[in-house]
Predict the 3D structure of the following.
Amino acid sequence: MTVNSLFQDMMLLCVFFIAGYVIRECCPLFRKLYLPSAVVGGGLALLAGDQMLGVIVIPKSFSSLSEVLIAPVICALVFGVTINRRKPTSFLDYSTMCLGLKGAQLGIGVLFGIVFAAIWPNLPVGWATMGMFAFHGGHGHSATAGSVYSEMGFTETIGVGMIFATIGLLGAVVVGMTIVNIGIRKGWTRYLDPNRTGSGTGKSIALVPEQKRRPIGMSRVYSASANNLAFQFALLMVAMYFGSSLFVVLGDHVHPFFHTLPSMMKGVVGGVLLWLAMCWLKLDGYVDKATINTISGFILEIIIVSAIATLRLDLFTTHLMPLLLYSLLLIIVSVVLCLAYARKCCRDEWFEKAVMCFGAGTGNTATGLALVRAVDPDGQSSAPDAHAAYVSSLGLPTNFFPVLVPMLFIQNPWSTVLLGLGIMAVSLGLGVIVFRK
């Protein structure tokens, strides 16, 4: 990718984003479904792209944008956040839910696979373990785990993982937005009033009324010295640079494992370290969290458009029936677990945390953030912060799963069932004991 090609990609993405906004404003149905403009624009790009109508050519680089751009989004979630007494509890109840969901997808998913193998004996070896990787880690974890199977001689498994990742992404959007609409209408949301002007009602609004407009950030440095937006963006990039450099040093001098950690982990660590250092040096006043959130929101819109525009529709033909049935059952398990556990154990913002966990646990972090944005358009919820805390704490040991699980499954499929169910039982059981309302 060159600088010119990146610039061309951004122009095309912005065209579809604005088109999505216009379509949403002109279509009452989309407003009533609370679909963000980025989702509508991404769907338009998918429809017009070479997979369907062939009106335009979607650049191949679109498919890799989310893997790169998700890092600053996650970094922005922790950079500038002030921790208080309530936040550790708010983060831990969410983390036990996410870890329990991952264990359930592994253990119950492999159980489904053992049953399906009796009906469809020609399914690839290890295919049932790929549901958890695809739903919780997207195409990246599917490729990693599938490569391990390929090294052991089972080359078809990676393709199944890609199919699951695509189905999971579609399920996260379609099922997730259905849950969002039900929650809004039942009054489960904390920050969204379905009756407020412009929240998705039948009235089209081109502009926010003048008396309701508010700044997207506050200046922290004199403009003669530096542009404030550029200054805040630079601080965010410096935080990511710190995190990336730290992991390079650890990978070179401690263990090569640190080179394999995902970029979002580097962003989280860098954001936390730089923010703590600035607080210690009494420089935290230079950070404007509102501007940082605005930058994060802008990047997130780009991620959503590109991710939906590049959904792989051609992967649905191989082993269509068992894969769809497996995915449907796993999505049902995920919906029931997230809603039931969050309502019972999450004391603050239970619905926002439920949709964040479901979106991130069936599609990817970007879809989870998109669902939260639908119920929290002003970015007040702590659910994204809780997810960042989960990724850098309880979720960290599961980074070994793409290597560990295939080896366990080949030796004995029931060992993966026990591993998954054990993680689910311990996580959810501990959460119920500690956090039950």
Observations:
- The two ends are 51 Å apart (CA to CA).
- Residues 49 and 58 are 6 Å apart (CA to CA).
